[in-house]
Design brief:
Blueprint lengths: L2 H6 L2 H5 L2 H19 L3 H16 L28 H12 L31 H5 L7 H36 L3 H29 L7 H12 L3 H26 L3 H32 L2 H20 L4 H8 L5 H10 L1 H20 L8 H6 L16 H5 L5
The protein binds fe (ii) ion (FE2) (2 copies).
Length: 399
């Protein structure tokens, strides 16, 4: 039985004040997360960020967060253009720029809990599972819960976009080839625009913003501190952006809200280029230039982070505000885990991520059994970012 399970079943948990019980459950949950990481080197690498993100909850403070970056800025005085695929992506990115202020119809009215144009499908969450814990929601209450879930998701997208803005600026400094720097400069402005649209949508249409999720904070913190250019690429361009692209594509497919569809369509086209950039930049480096020891470190890191991201985005911020007095944290985790919408999200996200890991050479025979063990190997033969563009993703041709 897990640490959280042992605590929940103990007599002590029954007599503690609710706030203390919740804190103990949360810490137990985090310890379970760390115990689930099997590779000691990955634990060691992530530990300082996990301390800041999970236990000190630095992302929840009112004050700005300062993270120490330690990368080297790479100058190339020859300005050699020797990466034609990245040069082509740079030209494409310049042609496809758009203006978040004028190319989106912000005059559209959004009614978050109206049955017209629902933000998320009604069967997105497992209502029966919730009812089994004594939480019976009427149809309007269900629509409000779906509004909270969508607001939570978009808030995490927004915070992820801020991570992408700063990471893409760092990557532009550290990447050792000029074509990559040129392309990276376009990504920086793309990410600023994404922050603009998600923040405006949340602020003026949904009227609510959630804190950054502790697990997302931990991953961003870890990438900001890592000085190696390829790890920033792997973490941000392949893992975070790859998963976000899957999430955006699925949300575009299931939401009926016209303004959200409009802005997601635009963002998806940009994000498809970003992931393409990550795959192009890492493919040769990982398959031709790294030593076996260096590549093995990346293989293990990518696998553990993939599993963490699959298992840890469980909307705890909603749980703590709305449902903590009705059910334990472990019951909430199971409820979210079993919800049809979340399982669709996981499936779409990993169908986008895993083929990219294959493409950059991180799904070797050594690590493949790990993916099989956790049920992610089935996505191995999907299409990578190199053969997918924004149109494929918004028109559902990505499978
Ligand atoms: Fe973005
Ligand atoms: Fe991006």
């Amino acid at each position: 039985m897990s640490i959280v399970g042992l605590f929940e079943n103990s007599a002590v948990s029954k007599i503690l004040p609710s706030s203390v019980r919740q804190t103990v459950e949360r810490w137990g949950d985090h310890v379970n997360v760390l115990l689930a990481v099997r590779n000691p080197a990955v634990i060691q690498q992530m530990a300082p960020s996990a301390m800041r993100g999970l236990f000190l909850r630095q992302g929840r403070r009112e004050a700005p967060t300062l993270m120490q970056a330690s990368h080297q800025a790479h100058f190339d005085w020859s300005y050699r253009s020797d990466f034609p695929e990245l040069q082509a992506l740079y030209q494409k990115a310049k042609r496809m720029q758009w203006n978040a202020a004028t190319d989106i119809d912000w005059s559209l009215n959004v009614e978050p809990v109206s049955p017209e144009n629902p933000l998320l499908p009604q069967d997105f969450l497992a209502w029966d599972d919730l009812a089994s814990h004594g939480v019976h929601l009427s149809p309007p209450e269900q629509r409000r819960a779906l509004y909270l879930v969508l607001t939570w998701m978009l808030s995490q997208f927004l915070h992820g976009e801020q991570g992408a803005l700063l990471a893409s600026a760092q990557v532009t400094e550290t990447v050792p080839f000029t074509d990559g720097k040129f392309y990276g400069a376009t990504q920086v402005v793309d990410e600023a625009r994404h922050i603009e649209v998600f923040h405006r949508y949340l602020d003026t249409k949904l009227n609510r913003l959630y804190n950054i999720n502790d697990n997302l904070f931990t991953i961003i913190d870890s990438l900001m501190h890592d000085g190696r250019w390829d790890m920033k690429f792997l973490g941000m361009q392949i893992m975070v952006e790859g998963l976000a692209l899957g999430a955006f594509s699925l949300l575009y497919k299931v939401t009926k809200e016209p303004l959200l569809r409009q802005l997601l369509r635009r963002v998806i086209h940009d994000e498809a280029r970003h992931v393409n950039y990550g795959v192009l930049a890492l493919r040769d480096f990982y398959t031709k230039q790294l030593t076996d020891k260096e590549r093995i470190e990346r293989e293990d890191w990518a696998f553990e982070v993939a599993v963490l991201m699959r298992d840890r985005f469980l909307a705890h911020e909603i749980y703590e505000e709305e449902f903590a007095s009705h059910m334990t944290r472990r019951q909430w985790n199971q409820f979210v885990d079993r919800s049809p919408g979340m399982s669709m999200f996981r499936s779409t996200m990993f169908s986008r991520l895993v083929p990219n890991l294959r493409e950059i050479g991180l799904l070797t025979e050594r690590v493949l059994p790990h993916y099989e063990r956790v049920g992610l190997a089935k996505y191995m033969n999907g299409r990578s970012a190199l053969t997918l563009d924004g149109d494929d993703l918004v028109e559902g041709r990505a499978a």
